[in-house]
Amino acid sequence: MPKLYVMHHSTCARKALFTMIEKGASIETIEVQRDYLATPEYRALNPEGVVPTLVRDDGRALTESSVILRYIDEAFPGPSLQPDDPSDRADMTLWMKLVDDKFFIGLVTISSATFIRSLFRLPEQEPEFAAMLDAMVDYQSRRLREDAVRNGLASGYIPWGLSVLRGMLQRIEAAVSQKGWLVGDRMTLAECAITPIMLRLEEFGFAPAWEESLPATTAWWKKLSGRPSVRQLVELADRQLLGQLVGSIEPARGQFLDALRSAPLAA
Q: Is residue 170 within a helix (H) or strand (E), and if so which, with residue range?
């Protein structure tokens, strides 16, 4: 049986879990801790040291969450989560790319400046913080996280990240106003990719950012978040860790929410 390595609170892991649950795919999930990601054993499967990783029956490992999403949809029986029309498939792929290249990074900025920052008492825990950074192989991700953790809410990445997330909500509103879904007239991998970001924003208490002024997004998220698969994602998360993550945002919740309502959109 294939094995999916995850941390149940992780946004990228939730993408794969959501797709797996929607498909009813027979995959064993293995919960790992952050320290394990830096071990030679795990790096042999995923050189980037991140989750998720899918190990197939033949022992070959798949990395990158969007690659894993498409593989699960195509390799397992059940209703397809990809449109039949080539143009719609291209639009779906664009949404997945935007999530990976832009929207997720926007979320990382505020999580790093709050939750990740709360995990380290600097400068006392400088060696532990350095070890975390050294385990990251992507230079840009490392640079962003280091700046956000060291500078907190004063990080120059914060306004950019919030403007990216506001732009994401505006883009969702324009798309779902047409047929009720991001692409076409049914749920696709585009929803599988973006749902964990929306779920995290909701967990942070940011739902008013769309409920107050984006009616199509509000209706779309209501039907999407009400699916059994999304409820299962919430139930799978470590409640204590999720509580710490959500609690870390509390001092900046009002500031962040105001920015999500009105920040200038990122280019």
A: helix 157-179
Whole-number percent of the chain with pLDDT over 90: 79
**Cα–Cα distance measured from residue 30 to residue 4, given in angstroms and rounded to the nearest whole number:** 6
pLDDT in tens, 15-34: 999 999 999 999 999 999 98
Number of independent structural domains in the chain = 2
Name the residue with tokens 């470590």: 238
SS3 state at 61: strand
Instruction: List b or e across 211-232, with b for residues whose CB sees 16 or more CB atoms inside 10 angstroms.
Output: eeebebbeebbeebbebebbee
End-to-end alpha carbon distance in the chain:
44
Q: CB within 8 A of 74, min separation 6: which ones?
A: 82
CA distance 128 to 61: 29
Looking at the DSSP bridge assignments, the partners of residue 61 are 55
Classify residue 267: in a domain, yes or no.
Answer: no
Asked whether residue 68 falls in the same domain as residue 94, the answer is no
| Residue 201 · residue 259 · CB < 8 Å | no
Indicate if 161 and 233 belong to the same structural domain: yes
**Tokens, residue 73:** 């949809």
In angstroms, rounded to a whole number, what is the distance separating the alpha carbons of residues 41 and 36?
8
- Residue 133 domain-assigned? yes
Q: Is this model's pTM higher than 0.90 or not?
A: yes
Mark whether 231 and 192 lie in a shared domain.
yes
